[in-house]
Amino acid sequence: MGGEDLVGDEEDFGTRDAGETERWRRTCAIEGHESEVKSCGWSPSGSLLATCGRDRTVWVWEAHGEEEFECAAAMHGHGGDVKRVTWHPTEDVLVTTSYDESVKIWREDADGDDWSCVRTLGGEDGNGGEGHASTVWCASFEPRALDDGRVGTRCVTCGGDGKLIVWNGKGFCNTDLEFGTSFECGHDRAVLSCSWGRNGLVAAGGGDNSIRLYGEVDGTWREVVKVENAHDDDVNHVEWSPHDSSLLVSASDDGTVTIWRLS
Amino acid sequence: MSFSGAVKIAPDALSDYIAPSQDCVVALDGGRVRIDDLGDAGEVAVRSRRSAPETRAPTGEAVKVTLSDCLACSGCVTSAESVLLEQQSVDEFLSVRKRLRSMGRGIVDWNLGVIVVSVSPQSLCSLGKVYGLDKQDTWTKFSGLMRDMGAYKVYDISGARDLALVETYAEFVERANGGAPTPLLASACPGWVCYAEKTHGELAIPHMATTKSPQQIMGTFVKSAVARDLGVSPDRVYHVSVMPCYDKKLEASRDDFMRGGVKDVDLVLTTGEVVVLLEKAGLHHLREAPNYAYDLMCDGFRVPPESEIAAHFVSGSGGYAEYVFRRAAAEIFNTPIMGAIEWVQLRNMDMREATLTVNNEVVLRVAVAYGFRNIQNLVRSLKMKKCKHHFVEIMACPSGCLNGGGQLPAPEGMSNKELVDALDEHYRIVERERNRVDVDFLYRAWIGGAPGSQPAREILRTQYHIRDKTPVGMIQLGNNW
């Protein structure tokens, strides 16, 4: 795998006026967060929407048609800015990552009346388990159907400590997580985004402008591809295409979005 | 988010009111005041997130944030709890007691002042359940404890709560007759009031019932009728209220509840803080406190209308929705409710609705909405002009006031849910047995007018304020915050 490389195809998407265009129509505005909203995401069932933000809260919204959303839960628990919401790939179970250095797992209560945090990994309330030593920026689940036929059950997180942590799934549909392994990655600054691809590789982008790919070889995680200066500024987001397992997209503070092909 | 000093509350309890979610932004030099880094001295140190060492304000003086600052600022949704603790604490109570040289048990230095305590039924319910005492014992032991701690009079707030119901209904009728926009929102919950003023002022305030909360009605009563009875000026009466809720401390600090520089409620202690007081008195159990009779707002009881009994029997949060529904059904729609109202659960247990159908048409819709998420949905429906309710009883805590953030935590081995259920059951029994003060008499003798009359409006109602988003609250901090 060492010979593989990422080939970039940069595209400047530019900026466009917010609001209505010929093809897009604003159907609904959801308000409730007190300040910056950092992340949002659809649940696998499509009926729920999660949001999180600087006000330290995590919200779950229930869709009633495309123009109506009801707040199913507004949850306190994180001690700091909540950076990212990530849904489990098949179940309506939510993972959040935060400035408080923890990863939290949220799910609906047994009586279906409310949502609550069922586990905290790392951070002050992390039950003494291993975790990140700085802001946890992002989480990504291992795809259920991997290209080599295996069934993914794990989750990876990345942090300001320059580490990636792989959490092993356990319990019902592997919706619960426990510490698996942690490895330093080559990034010498915060790792801001990670994405676990169908090809089994974890892509990571960071504050050092680089994009790196990590592969598991005989149970050990190693850097297999490195693109230094992939962007001219922080790489805020990397994501594998769910359909084409060699296609990666990255977004950066340099104002560009780049599509990469793993060759 | 931790409380310093002697106040002990369950970590869970913190999540059941609208918690401050951001660091306080009130500071002289534009720096932020870190709520969780407050010093022991009650001083607020200015600290920026990324520079670890503490930096003091330029003058060398620590920046002091008062409750009034909290109320005026929109930096966070509710208050800085550390500020509340500093100004509204057990220690503050003890220092006032010392200052007044109040020995309790009737020994008062009238030149210095007199301590009057009023207690919410939710606090008594929590104390009774956790200490395993029946209604009568809880009352006399609580009264005995407070008298040992310097109180001259100890009142039950229930009477003020009955007044709040009657006056809220008068307001409901006025609005219905005047064609005011629906719904009317019961606004006795300070968490809701604070949130509404700071984030949805223009939208929500026209809907908010202006009838004061039971605590503030009691405050007005103590500083007028009780002070007059005792023959002292209102500023010589130190009024302490005991509440299931931290945000009541904030409510008591509103300028609207101050007349001639005298606050109607000087200090609010939570149910949990009563336990701290108990420990300070050297007692291990409420049972060890002396028995002492409690005081009544007026002599003479009455048999109240069923609507009033049912209100408290059904709801641990004041019973506004139940009361308004019953009276409106009987008096506006000539369809008195016999037996129980059918409360239909909407999207969760804390969102319920009752409807009255006359001639196959729904003529009255009343709802209960507890907890932050249901407040969100309600505000959303207001905004989209889709709210069909005529009246909504709003409380910020999930499960309402019995589950207030200031209540005693569940004993070991009991979940919070089980505790709330147990409190609910206990409360119903207590409310069935409770003697009712004569509300009509209070309207006549104290207020000097009928419900909704000019004197009643002056004494029993308040106002709300739109809190602008202040520039200081909008400070953007770098570093990916």
From TrEMBL, chain A:
Keywords: Repeat, WD repeat. It comes from the Eukaryota. One of its GO terms (biological process) is iron-sulfur cluster assembly. It holds the Pfam family WD40. SUPFAM superfamilies: WD40 repeat-like. WD repeats lie at residues 30-62, 75-106, 228-263. InterPro entries: WD40/YVTN_repeat-like_dom_sf, WD40_PAC1, WD40_repeat_dom_sf, WD40_rpt. Coiled coil: none annotated. The keyword Repeat applies. PROSITE patterns: WD_REPEATS_2 (PS50082), WD_REPEATS_REGION (PS50294). GO terms for cellular component: cytosolic [4Fe-4S] assembly targeting complex. PANTHER family: CYTOSOLIC IRON-SULFUR PROTEIN ASSEMBLY PROTEIN CIAO1-RELATED, WD40 PROTEIN CIAO1. This is G-protein beta WD-40 repeat. It comes from Ostreococcus tauri (Marine green alga).
TrEMBL record, chain B:
It comes from the Eukaryota. Residues 115-405 form the Iron hydrogenase large subunit C-terminal domain. InterPro entries: Cytosolic_Fe-S_CAF (IPR050340), Fe_hydrogenase (IPR009016), Fe_hydrogenase_lsu_C (IPR004108). Belongs to the NARF family. SUPFAM superfamilies: Fe-only hydrogenase. This is Iron hydrogenase. Pfam families: Fe_hyd_lg_C. Coiled coil: none annotated.
